[in-house]
Structures are given as C-alpha cells and as structure tokens.
Amino acid sequence: MKKYALLLLFFCGILSFSQEKTQTDRMIEEIQQVKQNQTDMKLVWWIPTEYWEVALQENGSITQKQLDYLKELLNDYTIVAAGDYDLDSKSGAINFTVNDSSKKVIFYGLQGQKVTPLKESEIDDKVLIIVNQTLKPLFAQMLGKMGSGVNFFIYNNVENGKRIIDPTQPGSFKIDLNGEIFQWKLPLVSLMDEKTCPVDQQKMSGNWNFCPFHGNKL
Questions:
Q1: pLDDT band at residue 208, thresholds of 50, 70 and 90?
Q2: Mean local confidence (pLDDT), 35-52
Q3: What DSSP element (H or E) covers 52?
Q4: 143 has pLDDT over 70
Q5: How large is the average pLDDT for residues 135-162?
Q6: What is the mean pLDDT of residues 82-105?
Q7: Residue 200 pLDDT > 80, yes or no?
Q8: 3-state secondary structure string, 68-79?
C-alpha cells in the first residue's frame, strides 16, 4: 500500500541523490506530507523558496545571481501542491482513482484565518511559467496519472514588504485537503544549524536542547 508514497519520495530524491541524507532530503521530510490508509491517499507538498535554494545549490546547477533572482521572484508567494486519490487493492494489484482536489483545499494562515488562493491575473507571469510549464509537466512525467492529478495552489506571502510565512521563523499553518488536516510547525529544523554534542562531537538536530544520549546541554 506504500507504493505511491515511495514513488513520490523517489521523484523528490532525484533532485539530490546521495547515500547519506542531504539537507534537501531532510527538508523534503518536513515540507512534504503523505497520509494513506487502505482506501485513500492524500499528499500535500508545501514548496517554500528555501527548498529551491537548498536543492539547486546542492546540485550546483545555478549561479548566485540566478538564485537571488529566483528568491526575489518566489518569496512573495506560498506555493502548495496537493493530490487526493482513492485506492483499490481488491484485485491483488493496487489501482487508484484521482479525485479532483482543485476545490477541496482550504489554507489556514499563521493566525488560523482562511486564506484564498490568488487568481492567475494576480500572479507574476514568470511564477505561472514555473508552475504550469515546469512543475506540472515534471510531476506528470515522473508520476504518470498520479502526477497529473496534482493541483497547484498559489497564495500571497507578502504583507507590508515582509514575508508572511517564513520557514526560518516561529509559527504554524495548516491545510485541509478534503477533510484531512496537514500542519506545519516552524521554523523548519532542516534550515537550523546543527548542534554538536560536547562529549563525543556528534552532530545533533538544531532544535534539540540536550543530547539524548548523554543528557548534557547542547
């Protein structure tokens, strides 16, 4: 029953393949959420600007000037991808049906308020090109029918010249996909500096205050 979740992880992993987890891998684990049972599967992928920054820097496919331009372009938006599927394994093979998620996503902001997705006329043309001519075809190419069933939602992410949702700052927001709640708590651990245990010099998660093995303060 985990076949499709594994396919999605494979798709994301091609951006940065390594025997050890990279920062991109750790970030994907935080920003991508999949919920699955015997009869259905739902996925929501929040794609902050920092994801592109980390992934593209790791594979060395972008210059700093290009990266700065991309960040300036995308920081004004919150981009979310969502897919909703019915699963059927009665025949012995896993089959799925794509449910239209275009009107089944409710975004709740940092204050718990409902946020309406932007109309295409309110979105920079270059951002629409990234989503419609790059992300959508890539999902469809890598995941076939499942990828074609992913819908993208773009929300405003700037107020008074500042980002509303910043993955490096404290806060939380959630998304309701057809009755299933997906929540993100910030800051993202993958964007925090790792800590070092003073006893054995092992790297520890940036959000840990104490070493879980020795009990000493980090």
A1: low
A2: 92
A3: helix 49-58
A4: yes
A5: 91
A6: 83
A7: no
A8: HHHHHHHCCEEE
- What percentage of residues in the chain have a pLDDT greater than 90? 50
Residues 6+ apart with CB under 8 A from 29: 190
**Is residue 176's pLDDT more than 60?**
yes
User: b vs e for 126-158, b when ≥16 Cβ sit within 10 Å of the residue's Cβ?
Assistant: ebeebbeeebbeebeeebeebbebbbbbbbbbe
What does the alpha-carbon distance between residue 18 and residue 40 come to, in Å, rounded to a whole number? 31
51-61 burial, b if ≥16 CB within 10 A, otherwise e? Answer: bbbbbbeeeee
Separation CA 105–CA 26 (nearest Å): 25
Residue 177, classified by CB atoms within 10 Å of its CB into exposed (0-12), middle (13-18) or buried (19+), is buried
- Tell me, what's the pLDDT at 32? 94
Decide if 24 contacts 58 (C-beta within 8 A): yes
pLDDT number for residue 209: 64
Residue length, the chain? 218
The DSSP string of 159-215 is ETTEESS-TTSSEEEEEEETTEEEEEEES-GGGSPPEE-TTT--EE-TT-SB-TTT-
Burial of 9-40, coded b for 16+ CB within 10 Å and e otherwise, reads eebbeebbeeeeebbbbebbebbbbbebeeeb
